[in-house]
Specification:
Layout: H1 2-25, E1 29-37, E2 62-70, E3 75-82, E4 88-91, H2 98-101, E5 115-119, E6 122-126, E7 136-139, E8 144-156, E9 162-173, H3 175-178, E10 185-188, H4 202-209, E11 216-220, E12 228-232, E13 245-248, E14 256-259, E15 261-264, E16 267-268, E17 278-282, E18 289-291, H5 293-303, E19 318-322, E20 325-329, H6 331-334, E21 335-338, E22 341-344, E23 346-348, E24 359-361, H7 363-368, E25 369-374, E26 379-384, H8 389-422
Length: about 425
C-alpha cells in the first residue's frame, strides 16, 4: 500500500511538473484562412501616409481572413490578419450603420469579462458613471470608422490560446469599404508602435501572457485551391521549400527590413545605392507590391509588360536583395493576368520622410515566400513557400485558360476589323 501510494505521489508530481512546464512554454495554433478575390479594400493604417496603398483595386487583389474569438462566452468573428496595422477592430452592437449591421457585432453586455476602457493612455481604467471616454477615428483608403476602447478575453481561432487585450469597438463605419467586405473586422499584427498603445498590441499581449510556445507567428498564402494559414507560437517547416534566412527589423512599427537593391533579369538596378539602402515593409494587408513612383516608373519602362499578354512568357524575373539573398519573382508572380489582359502587379506609393520612402511586399510576394515574424528577436524570416503540385497545376491551367480567352478576343477583334474593311 505504501509503495502504491509513493508511486501515485510520484505520478501526480510528474504530471504537475509537466502541466507547469506546458503552462510556462505555452502553446501554438494554426488558423486556416479563407482566400477571396477582392471586391473592395478595407485595410486600415494608423498613418494616412499609407492610405494610397490600401485604396486601390487590381486583378491580383485577394483577401485572406480567419477566426478570432472575443469575450466570455466566446463571440466569434472573421478578421483579416494584417501585419500592416496595429489594433484589433470589430464592429460594436452600438453601431447601427449598414456596414456594421451586415456583419457580426461585438456585444459587451453578453460577456462577463468585458470592460469598457476610458482612455488609451490609461488602458486599465474603466469608464466611470459620467461616461467620459475617448473616441478614436481611424482613416482607411476609401472610408473611415470611429469607435471606443474595450478590454476582454481574446482567443486565436477556436483555440485555448487566449489573453486579455484592449481593442477598438466601432460605433460608426462608412459604407465603403465595410459594407461590401466578407469579413467582420481587422486584427492588426504590426509592432506596438502602430497600435493605440502597448495594451492594444495583441501579439505583445500574447507574448507577455506566456501563452505562445515561441514569441512569433508565420504566414502562408496559398494559391487557388490551396489552404492558406497563419500560425502562432510556431512556424511550419513543412510549408518551406528552402532554408529560412532572417532580416532584422530596422524601424519598429511595420515589420520593416532593409533592402540592398532591386534586380531585373539578374542585373542590379542601383536603386538603393544611396542613403544606406531601401526600406521595405512586409504587409499581409496589402494586395500588391508597392514602391516609390520613380522606382515603379523605372520598372514599368524596363519590363514593358504588354497589355495583351503577348510577351508574358519572355518577361524577365525581378528580385529584391534582402540580407544578401535575392528574393526572386517570375512574371507569373508579378504580372496580373485576367480576361481583359495583363498588367504589372506593382503600384506607386510615395510615403514622405521620416517614414518613407518605403517599399511594400504584399500578396504577390507573400504567395511566393513563407514569412515568419519574430517578436523576441525583432526580425522577419523568409523562405520559399512550398505549394502543392495540384495548386500549381491549377494555377497554370488558369493561366492557359486566360490566354485562350485573350487570344479568342483578339481574333474576334481582327475578324471584326477585316469585315469592316471589306465593307
Amino acid at each position: 500500500m505504501v509503495y502504491q501510494l509513493c508511486v501515485a505521489l510520484l505520478v501526480a508530481s510528474a504530471l504537475a511538473e509537466v502541466l507547469e512546464r506546458a503552462n510556462q512554454t505555452g502553446g501554438s495554433v494554426v488558423i486556416p484562412l479563407v482566400r477571396r478575390r477582392k471586391l473592395g479594400l478595407a485595410q486600415v493604417s494608423q498613418s494616412s501616409d499609407t492610405a494610397e496603398v490600401h485604396g486601390k483595386r487590381h486583378g491580383q487583389a485577394s483577401e485572406y481572413y480567419g477566426q478570432v474569438s472575443v469575450g466570455s462566452p466566446a463571440q466569434t468573428f472573421m478578421v483579416v490578419f494584417d501585419t500592416g496595422s496595429g489594433n484589433l477592430l470589430l464592429p460594436s452592437k452600438d453601431c447601427q450603420d449598414e456596414a456594421c449591421t451586415g456583419h457580426k457585432r461585438f456585444d459587451d453586455g453578453l460577456s462577463t469579462t468585458a470592460m469598457e476602457v476610458a482612455f488609451a493612455d490609461q488602458p486599465n481604467t474603466a469608464v466611470q458613471a459620467d461616461g467620459t471616454r475617448d473616441v478614436v477615428t481611424i482613416t482607411f483608403g476609401t472610408g473611415e470608422m470611429s469607435g471606443v476602447y474595450v478590454r476582454d478575453n481574446i482567443c486565436l481561432g477556436g483555440s485555448q490560446i487566449c489573453c486579455q487585450s484592449n481593442f477598438v469597438a466601432a460605433t460608426e463605419e462608412s459604407d465603403e469599404p465595410f459594407s461590401i467586405v466578407p469579413f467582420d473586422g481587422i486584427l492588426g499584427l504590426s509592432l506596438p508602435q502602430m497600435a493605440e498603445g502597448a495594451s492594444f498590441s495583441l501579439v505583445d499581449q500574447m507574448v507577455d501572457a506566456g501563452v505562445l510556445k515561441e514569441p512569433l507567428f508565420g504566414v502562408f498564402f496559398g494559391n487557388d485551391g490551396e489552404q492558406s494559414e497563419v500560425s502562432f507560437g510556431q512556424y511550419r517547416k513543412e510549408l518551406m521549400a528552402s532554408d529560412m534566412f532572417w532580416a532584422s527589423v530596422t524601424v519598429p512599427g511595420y515589420w520593416q527590413v532593409k533592402m540592398q537593391d532591386v534586380v531585373v533579369d539578374g542585373k542590379k538596378q542601383g536603386i538603393c545605392a544611396t542613403g544606406g539602402g531601401c526600406q521595405v515593409a512586409v504587409d499581409t494587408g496589402t494586395s500588391l507590391l508597392a514602391g516609390p513612383s520613380d522606382v515603379v516608373n523605372q520598372l514599368i519602362e524596363s519590363l514593358e509588360v504588354a497589355s495583351d499578354c503577348s510577351n508574358h512568357e519572355h518577361l524577365p524575373p525581378i528580385g529584391f536583395i534582402v540580407s544578401g539573398h535575392t528574393l526572386s519573382l517570375g512574371p507569373e508572380d508579378y504580372v496580373s493576368r485576367t480576361d481583359s489582359g495583363c498588367s504589372l502587379g506593382l503600384m506607386s506609393l510615395d510615403i514622405p520622410p521620416p517614414k518613407g520612402p518605403l517599399f511594400i511586399f504584399g500578396d504577390p510576394f507573400l504567395r511566393k515566400y513563407y514569412t515568419v515574424y519574430d517578436r523576441k528577436n525583432l526580425r522577419v524570416g523568409f523562405a520559399l513557400a512550398r505549394h502543392s503540385e495540384s495548386s500549381s497545376a491549377e494555377a497554370l491551367l488558369s493561366v492557359h485558360r486566360s490566354a485562350r480567352r485573350i487570344t479568342r478576343k483578339l481574333r474576334r477583334r481582327r475578324m471584326r476589323g477585316a469585315t469592316h474593311h471589306n465593307a
